Amino acid sequence: MSINWQTLRTAQDIVNEYKQSQAQWLNTERDRLINAGITHNGHQFQTREKDVADLMGVIQVAQLTPNLTTRWLTENNTEVEMNLQQLQALGIAVAQHKTHLVYRCRQHKDAIAALTTKEAVDNYISNISW
C-alpha cells in the first residue's frame, strides 16, 4: 500500500478547516443580523442595504431643506413622521448597529482562530453573543 503524502491531512488541518467554516458562518450570521433591522425610538426599522441607501438619500435631501418633515415606514409599515434631526439620529443608530456587529464578528473570528480543538470551537460557538 502506498501513501499519498500530498492528500494526507493532519488533525490540525481538520481543525483549521473547521475553524474556517465557522468563520464563514460568523460572516453569514453577522450579515443576517445587520439586515435584521433595529429598534429606534420604540419602532422597528429595516436595515437591509436598500433600506439604508434610501435613508441616506432622504437625509441628504432633508439637509438641503432643513424644515422638511417626512414619513418613514417601520418594518410593519407604520408611518413615523420625522424631521432632519430624527432622520439623522436614525442614520447614526443604523451605522452604529452595523459597526458593532462588524467589530464583534472580528472579535469572534480572532477568538476562534486561537482555539486548538473542534470541541473548543463548538463550545465557543454555542455560547456566542453579539
Automatic annotation (TrEMBL):
All residue ranges annotated as the DUF4376 domain in the record: 18-122
Pfam families registered for this protein in UniProt: DUF4376
InterPro entries registered for this protein in UniProt: DUF4376 (IPR025484)
Domain of life, per lineage: Bacteria
Protein name: DUF4376 domain-containing protein
